[in-house]
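Appendix B. Extra example for self-study. Work through it before the problem class; the solution is given directly after the inputs so you can check yourself.
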Amino acid sequence: MPSHTFKLNGQQVTVDVPDDLRLLWVLRDVLGVMGPKYGCGLDVCKACTSHINGKAFNPCSVRISDIKPTDEVTTIEGLPATVGKPLHPMQQAWLDFDVAQCGYCQPGQIMAAVAKVKQARAAGHEITDADLDELRNICRCGTYFRIREAVKAGAQKM
Amino acid sequence: MALRTPEQKADEVAATPTGTGRRSFLGYLIAAPTLVVAAQVGAGALAPQAAQAAIPSLPQPEELFDLGDLQDLAALSTSTMIAIQLNTDGTASFALPRAEVGQGITTLVAQLIAEELDLPIDKVHITLADARPELLFNQLTGGSNSTRSMYTPVRTAAAIAREQLMIAAAAKWGVPVSTVSTNSGVVKSQSGKTATYGSLAVAAAATQRTSIQVQLKPAAQFTVIGKAQNRIDALDAVTGRKTFAMDLKIPNALPTMVRRAPTVNGTVKSVANIAAVKAMGGITDVGIISTGVAVRGATFGQCIAAVNALNVTWNPGPVDAESDATIAKKLKAAELPLVVPPLPLLTQAVDDTFTFAFASNSPLEPNCAVADVRPDRAEIWSSLKVPIAAVQQIAQNLGLPQTAVSAHVVQGGGSFGRHLFSDAAIEAAEISRKFGKPVKLMWHRTDDFRHGRTHPMSTSRVRVTYGLGNVISYEQRHTSVQTDFTHGLGEMITAMAAKLPAGNFVGFSESIFELTQSVPYNFGVVTQLLNETFAYDAFHTGSMRNIYSPNVCVATELIVDRVAAKMGKDPLAFRREYLKDARTLAVLNKVAQVGNWGRAMPAGMAQGIAVHNEYKGAIATLVEIDCRPATVNRQVKDAVTGPRVTKAVVAVDVGLPVNPRGLEAQMLGGISDGIALILTSSVHMKDGLPLEGSWDNYFYTRQWNTPLDIQVIVMPPTTGQPGGAGELGVAPVAAAVACAYARATNTAPTSFPINHGTLSFTPLPRSVIPPEPTDGLSHAF
Ligand code: FES
Ligand code: FES
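Solution. Structure tokens for the complete assembly:
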């Protein structure tokens, strides 16, 4: 079985799994990292959204063999560490606006929101309603409105 | 009955008494090492409401006695205890016999305990109770009934616990009980002595069961009930620590998936390559089960590969020949006739039929369960709204006594009606028995849409007659593919039907329909009848936030707008004139005022307004929609864009809002659902299978469909009793959106969602799981 190594939430990890196993299953079934959720396995629902080298991506749609040893993968579990506080400002905003209902989509929502804010800034502006419209993450509980409020508030503290 | 002006009716809201008075409630001390107090569940108050009338309509069954009452009453006759335990660390624990699926019931119950026990809410620990067969109907989460059924028993137990702690402290200090008081988890004496609840938990414990009477706090003294409370599980949710069924680490419960038939309820005829698939990488077991071919392996990725490698020959299912069009024909044939009453001269009629497509109640978390079945016992973990029924069914299927099956209720990633059925738990138990090993069963998303439960297609015909400036009759004939209600209420309904005040209920569906539906207007002679077609298990059906109300209400409100127009009246003024009930009028007036009803809008944009009564609550919605081409044709990849609801205003009166912030969250969910039902989300049934197989086929509301302006107004307490909230918002939002769409486009839409006629995606292949994408890195942002 091929051996694969990469950086996960700040730690170097090595797994022996088939080349074509998608990263979501490496995280959940092999490493027991349960923050990224399964909602489709088709790169559609975005429940599994995590970061690779600081950008949002969907591990259900990436083969482990496409991850390089130098790649840094961050799941919701590793997000607070990016600011050295117990909670990332976006997580705090989620608490302030009491966003979560069932909570199943929310790790993915938060990871996508953080990347979206950074993407807007890289393009030279603060996050807009048009940017927020581009977030594809499904929330079947329908928390979209509070998500919008929380992203805007969280962005101000980022 | 005297006619009243809207203003007079609105005044009555203010005059309605609030609070529960100073009645005594009964609870029990339970012998245990620390203080444990119990109370019976199921004591619902029956409070018939009188109808006010323009032309008085007789009260319909729902107004006198609704589904929640029926659940309360059934619960009363079979009720037993719920119990609160005080721990030596100063916390209180309560195992809630309900499912938490995102509706916030754990937070709400924690509030009730914090209020009566005088304990900070972060010291109240709520867990979900395992299946408790002795509770019978008291362990069903549905019909927006949880708050109503828990409100009094939980407070009673908490109030007794507080008194017992005071008694224990007074005894310790040798002072009269009347001289001690509590403050936030501490008992105090007049001389300044203090004792924490934790230090008294053992001293206050009972040595034998004792019944105790207690008075509950009057509403005027509430400091927690009625105050906005953030969710007690929010931190876990935002850190990824919240644990769902598939996150459980049950030893040796390996990933397990099922290859399913190309049509609903199809079965396996033969499998050509079981041995070869079992030899695939990571795979431990392969076997035929009643619903397909099960595969167990080291990872879900390897299971997907194995499922797709199976070479299966299938038997047909019962509905292979059915598609949307053939089903619609059968619905038409099953529609009950209208019985038009004798009409005075010059009477006119508005008469139309509305069609509602199949819709999916799939939550974001797909059907899943962990099962560990041994020869002599079984253990199940899943999000179960009717865990007792799951235990009964699994015990029967496995040939085990009920006592040998334990079911752990896990927090669910949404439900929307889906978890009234225990499909995944039952299937996981079958697979675990077959393989002789623990399994962690997950349905693939595509299977969840295609073989998971749907809210069935229905039609609603409405005929209204009017003349001489008044509405004379309202008749509604709702016709639906039969909804499966075999999740355990069946027996209860049979047992209870004879006791119903309106009597004469034939079957379960009719009972549910009668108990949940009513027309909020004084429309003279009113009849609403249901008929159903197809066997209950021909398709996989079930309730969907909620049962009939969204479709029935949309049909009603669209016709109301049309009748108002024919009679030359403004939609708001017409509703004000004909509404029966003062609470509904008050919420209608509220949204009209806050939403600025009647404001000028550009061509292609319009407002819609609608009301709904259910679950002892009243709700009104005003929306604005943008149907201008630039909006309708905006481009988002793989998306249905279409008209956009730009603004939504909801005013809701649930009688007593225990947690206004949680109630607002439920309304926000109702807004997302209502928009989806009218504009974008449906299931296309084609040759015995839904074509939808992903969230980019089933167009539930997304960010690009979300209104940028939403206001939810929680009305102050009116009845002093909490009504249901989880499902209340969907119907009036759907209706207001439909009315706004009709006005903005100057059309009379009769088929919903409006985009159902166009298939906006290429259907995924049948039976196999779609390939896992590999290009995820190229979409990183
Ligand atoms: S599970 Fe990865 S996008 Fe849906
Ligand atoms: S909170 Fe339930 S899916 Fe988003």
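Self-check: Residues A 38-41, 43-48, 58, 60 surround FE2/S2 (inorganic) cluster (ligand 1) (CB under 6 Å). If your reasoning did not lead you there, revisit section 3.
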